[in-house]
Amino acid sequence: MPLYLTEDQTMLRNTAREFMASEGNIPAQLRKYRDMNCKDGFGHALWRQFGEMGFNGILISEEDGGLGLGHVEAGIVIEEIGRNLTPSPFLMTAVAVVEALKGTALRERWYPGILSGDTVAALAVDEGPKHRPDAISMWAERAGNGFRLTGRKQFVVQGASADLIVVAARAEEGVTLFAVEKEARGLEVEGVRLADSSIGARMDFQGVEVDADAVIGEVGGGEAVLSRVLNAGRAGAASEMVGLGSAAMSMTVEYLKQRKQFGRLIGEFQVLQHRAAHLYSELEIARSAAIKAQQLLDEGSEEAEAMVSVAKAKAGWASTLAVQEGVQMHGGIGMTDEYDIGLYMKRDRALNELFGDPNYHADKLARMKGY
Amino acid sequence: MSDLETFRSEMRAWLEANCPPEMREPMRDESDACWGGRNFTFKNEAQRKWLEVMAQRGWTVPDWPKDYGGGGLSPAETKVLRQEMARIGARNPLMSFGISMLGPALLKYGTEAQKKRFLPEIARGEIRWCQGYSEPNAGSDLASLQTKCEDKGDHWLVNGQKVWTSYADKADWIFCLVRTDFQAPKHKGISFLLFDMASPGVSTRPILLISGYSPFCETFFDDVKVPKDQVVGEINKGWDVAKYLLGHEREMISGMGLGGGQSVSLGEAFKDVVAGDPLLRADMARFDVDAMAFRAMSERFMDELKAGMAHPAQPSMMKYAGTELNKARHELVMAAGGSDALEWESDRSRKGKAAREWLRTKANSIEGGTSEVQLGIIAKRILDLPGA
Question: Given an 8 Å threshold on Cβ–Cβ distance, is A310 in contact with B292?
Fold first, then answer.
């Protein structure tokens, strides 16, 4: 398969680009919900519009009412989200949790609401400030015909507004994923506003009891599912950073063409031209890595996991470079809340942490390569 | 089965039957490559045979038209051929500036007679070409070149000097930028000339480099007579041909970032060393991320190029990123090798292979337009930034 978008994919990109620029733009969404101090940090109306557009069903099979497309297509939509900093449950709900429920009986209960944009779902994995999915310590103890979950989670994106929380816990048999509903007794959720104005959640599971049918996949078989879910999320996050970085670069390059100092456009200065050109190069490489990773995921290739880590790390570096250069090249106004470039910087930091930062993924790649 | 899958299975069978085992072993360095040409001595029978069978099919230049010695393959078929060759580790049957640089320029700008005359012998590896671009006072500012070419009625007369001419001492012919109009603005007085290096008045002198090798020469032209029909494109419009060819040169050089097609990760290759050196391990891990991401970029770029979707200045980005990556690779190889990698002549070090290659890569970001020149091109032609 050639490593560029097909005609259908280009059409999807154009649709998503137009939709996100008109409906999901910064004043209409991010600033609006931030400034009204919204407890969800995103708009449910837009989430339903996502449903109407069909975006939410990209990774859901046609039999289940979705579009039956793949990670490349999901990435196309996410890249536009990244460009506009659109606050949306898309990555967590329509990518990560949809991937988690794939092939399970639980999908009948949850997919319809996800498809329509009525349901928000979250993924609870991290237990400390860094992403360490290999060291999950939340305890899942057998109780009655089900399990009792005890432990803490954090950085549960959109967790405070989620109807469904997919939780990774350790049972006697090994890591297991559970589908927990928001009303579950013993679950304390604290919504926390993050630097990028999104709302993460800290969750305290105080002996939360769930039925056996809340188990996703096999008891003790959660590692494989979790790795599939995380890789889908990481590839998506890579696309979001590619979109974010590209938008930050465009804003900055446009600024270089308008701002005059010393009697000339600052974009005439070679020192800035070369830095902008280097940034362009890094972003194009990151974009290629993200598409490649998504193609490999869609092919079910054995090489997908390594490429996903490459994409997440490379996109993280490139996007961070884009926002750092962006703020610096904007000069003083880049520090003001009025200008959007600072919003890009904050979102970049959050996305870098999500699902493992570049160090985590470079290290993971090294381990996969046996060193 | 689709046509492409049929093609793949036929290709696989053919390669299996025709690629000699010796030609499936990785090349150790450039001296293992088959360069062809009038003066080339094949290293062994396998190398000669491999070139012969591939050239017979036109597969040294799979996507050139059959009329000019090519294979006439579609972009998709060409990709399959490369994938199938890579699958068995088949060597490139012919390393050639004629293929990677002159050929594309002739296909676009050459007359029918020029194409018929020059392309088939390039495809068969019979004539080895060199590139006469840089001059002592025309490096990054290439268009200021001064080699003089005068119209003497029934022939051209060439006088001047080129420098950094790769393998000029081994080449049979040269494609050369010369000045045919000294009054016109510098870009508008240049022509693109082809001539035989055996012509009277041509001489070469190898330049000893920091690597201890002499891949480049100074090349002198002293009253060299050139037939009139050996100009490519219009007189005084050679700069268009030159730029087009540079795009192809940059693509070729950017491929160096792929580490000669080795898929093994750098950290994996030095796993024993990095086990005791966490900072080097971290550097290697970051390098492997960059290298794998660049590999995806190369694949995408080649796909876009074949589909006619690539930005015309994209080769500059590839050249910049690929050569900087290759330099980073060799810095890490030296760091991992420690004092072993410093040995310059011993058989143990294969005559200083690591150190000499490390030094060779420093030219990557200079030759074919420096990194700074490429960044300038990206800034102006892709990002549309203003000024000079």
Answer: yes
